């Protein structure tokens, strides 16, 4: 299978969607104890920008426990003109474009192509599974991958302490699986991350995170 052609068909199909529905589930453990459990049922109209969500979450971190909450929210629509303006702003004022230059550009392309090369494709009867294991990357790409995670953490200093812990993982083991149906629609995305963190007191902690997004697509034959 031509991976580039297949990815192009998937991106083209997803781009044509006007509505996205699904369920996001996340669970994070520290030293085998669950510190975050989250479920988000979401629905987004890609034409108007309207978003509806129903979230259930439980957080037990640094002595703080948040009991499960259920709520629905409809975000204010975001006009296409605003999206276009924000996109242009990002293109012209991105820090990487101002400071990185060609070296940064080629570094990003090298990293992207390395991920594409490591991407595994498994074809089943009605499903194609794209999988990526960070352990399959070359040693220099593993180093770059870890550096990018640390770099992201430094640019999100105001993030919740839970996120900061994952940014500080040494050599994280990351796995990603994407399930795609025969219509080139993404049905499910499963991601796992695990690693060891050393805190300020030199104590070692094991961190594990599992995330899954299941998309629900309307059958076109039923819609017609």
TrEMBL record:
Name of the protein: Uncharacterized protein
Entry superkingdom: Bacteria
């Amino acid at each position: 299978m031509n991976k580039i052609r297949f990815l192009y068909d998937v991106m083209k199909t997803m781009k044509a969607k006007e509505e996205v529905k699904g369920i996001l589930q996340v669970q994070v453990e520290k030293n085998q104890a669950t510190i975050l459990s989250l479920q988000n049922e979401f629905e987004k109209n890609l034409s108007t920008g309207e978003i509806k969500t129903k979230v259930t979450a439980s957080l037990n971190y640094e002595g703080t426990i948040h009991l499960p909450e259920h709520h629905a929210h409809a975000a204010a629509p975001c006009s296409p003109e605003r999206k276009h303006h924000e996109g242009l702003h990002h293109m012209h004022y991105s820090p990487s474009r101002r400071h990185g230059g060609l070296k940064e550009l080629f570094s990003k392309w090298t990293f992207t192509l390395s991920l594409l090369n490591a991407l595994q494709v498994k074809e089943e009867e009605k499903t194609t599974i794209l999988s990526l294991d960070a352990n399959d990357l070359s040693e220099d790409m593993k180093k770059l991958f870890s550096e990018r995670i640390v770099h992201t953490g430094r640019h999100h200093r105001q993030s919740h302490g839970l996120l900061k812990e994952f940014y500080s993982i040494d050599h994280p083991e990351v796995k990603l699986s994407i399930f795609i149906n025969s219509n080139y629609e993404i049905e499910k995305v499963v991601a796992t991350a695990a690693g060891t963190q050393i805190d300020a007191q030199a104590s070692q902690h094991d961190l594990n995170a599992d995330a899954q997004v299941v998309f629900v697509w309307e059958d076109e034959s039923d819609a017609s």
